[in-house]
Design a protein that fits this description.
Blueprint lengths: L4 H12 L6 H8 L8 H13 L3 E4 L7 E4 L6 E5 L5 E4 L5 H4 L16 E4 L2 H6 L1
Parallel strand pairs: 3-5
Antiparallel strand pairs: 1-2, 3-4
């Protein structure tokens, strides 16, 4: 895959983000790195980057897809109910505790997604 200036701007934007971004958020933030970037180009490049494993798609219930840089390891998310921003959480994963305790014997977890909802520090301070 060819590394274009658009792809570099998108990847740099995702590297700088505190959580997964919508394509519109990628466009707005990447404008500082690549002012002529358009939304169709962002969508097209996110699809190519996801296909090549450079970014991953994050699906939150009842929302459009968000994207984050691949290779960040297993983590969960927090979505602010006021501003809508999604943050990465870096805490111990509770699933290992659930296996064999809460889950009946014989169940094996292969994957999961955990998103917590509430107010981010900025929105909480403003409330």
């Amino acid at each position: 895959m060819r590394q274009t200036s658009q792809r570099r701007a998108i990847l740099q934007t995702l590297d700088e983000a505190s959580g997964p971004l919508t394509p519109q958020q990628v466009l707005e933030r990447a404008a500082t790195h690549h002012p002529s970037l358009g939304l169709a180009t962002v969508y097209r490049n996110l699809a190519v980057l996801a296909e090549h494993g450079d970014v991953v798609v994050v699906h939150l219930p009842n929302e459009s897809a968000r994207y984050e840089r691949a290779g960040r390891g297993h983590h969960h998310h927090f979505r602010c109910e006021r501003c809508g921003q999604v943050f990465e959480l870096h805490a111990t994963c509770p699933v290992a505790v659930l296996e064999g305790v809460t889950l009946p014997g014989g169940f094996e977890v292969h994957d999961h997604a955990l998103t917590l909802y509430g107010l981010c520090p900025d929105c909480r301070a403003a409330a």
